[in-house]
Amino acid sequence: MQPERPIDRLLRIMAKLRDPDGGCPWDLEQDFSTIAPYTIEEAYEVADAIDRGDLRALKDELGDLLLQVVFHAQMAREQGAFGFDDVAEAISEKMVRRHPHVFGDASFADAEEQTLNWEQIKRAEREAAGEADTSALAGISRGLPEWQRAVKLQSRAARAGFDWPGPEPVIAKLHEEIEEVRAEFARGDVAANRERLEDEIGDLLFVAANLARHARVDVGAALRRANLKFERRFRAMEQLAEADGTPLPTLDLAAQEGYWERAKRRERGQPD
């Protein structure tokens, strides 16, 4: 008797969890929309484990992410739509179709040429599926995190030739957008001006994402690094203040900024 494959065991466990006769009440209550946020969260936790270089955590987080795929596939199977094997077969066919230079006779001069071919194949797939949108921006999911969607929109537009030639004009545009945000704040009533501020700050963030794209920097990775840096330094501020017998929340902003500078110096190995 062949031992049960790990993936088959996982599929069996998921089916049992969703079994109306003896399954888990929480799992039975879920549907695609309620599980979707967990799927997104698990993908971010995979990225976090990679950022930390923690391979043990990466193994666990990849398992959590795989469970999300299995969960969605089980719910679809219950509706008679598709199952896990259909998901695996569909992505296998797609990978073969989109890599003719690996699984066929095609050849490309470089990665850029291969990427253009990838986009052409995706466009042909959309047309075959009956999609009428022929824009260069067609097929960019609205379900992506907005920073990621911004970069994809910019990249697609760039392939059509609509792009700045380098980072300098992007930096100039960034300064222009900052001044427009400043002007909106100068109007005074932030609450009454919320919509215009949202519009101008959105423009500012869009240009910042474009600058990251020109630098070939992943926006999500850069922001995660900034978040980690802020968290690390703020926690150090709290510890320094506590050691001085002055809890951070009791201090005014000038004193807190003093601890911020001390935390930065310590991080850099400089004396207080």
Structural overview:
This protein is mainly alpha-helical. Helix content is 71%, strand content 0%. It contains 12 helices and no strands. The chain has helices spanning 6-17, 25-29, 32-52, 55-78, 84-98, 100-103, 111-128, 146-159, 167-186, 194-214, 219-243, 253-267. α8 crosses α10 (194-214), α9 (167-186) packs antiparallel against α10 and α11 (219-243) packs across α12. The longest helix has 25 residues, at 219-243. The radius of gyration is 25 Å and the shape is globular. The model has no long low-confidence stretch (mean pLDDT 92).
Tell me the radius of gyration.
25 Å
> SSE order, as H and E?
HHHHHHHHHHHH
Largest beta sheet, briefly? none
Total strands: the figure is 0
| CA(first)-CA(last) distance | 68 Å
Principal-axes shape call = globular
- Unreliably modeled segments: none
Percentage of residues in helical conformation: over 70%
Total count of helical runs of at least 4 residues: 12
* Helix-strand category: mainly alpha
In round numbers, the mean pLDDT is 92
Strand content: under 5%
Could you write a compact summary of the structure shown?
By secondary structure, the chain is an all-alpha fold. It has helices spanning 6-17, 25-29, 32-52, 55-78, 84-98, 100-103, 111-128, 146-159, 167-186, 194-214, 219-243, 253-267.
